[in-house]
Fold this sequence. Notes:
By secondary structure, the chain is of the alpha/beta class. The protein has helices at 11-16, 32-47, 63-68, 95-103, and strands at 4-5, 22-27, 53-58, 76-81, 84-90.
Amino acid sequence: MIFAGVTEATWDSLVLESSSPVLVEFWAPWCGPCRMIHPLKDKLAKQYAGKLNCYKVNTDESPSIATKYGIRSIPTVMIFKNGEKKDAIVGAVPESTLTTSIEKFL
């Protein structure tokens, strides 16, 4: 798995203080649609290596992050740039939807 896990302890340093745009997937192990899109996320992480940092947050293990960003359903993918949430995509979406969103912030 290319996507490194982020916790409440590492959120600020890895996501908010990153000099590169950051894609964060909010997920949980019991979430079927989350598992369906993991191969797609890994592909995007390889495709954008060096331009985009990719992380995942287990909403069961880090509920305060999910609450802070208003996560109501998973999977939710958020893109952060300069410490700010720039975009959010909810649900198991096609690759083209994620690519279009990523390209806007590179």
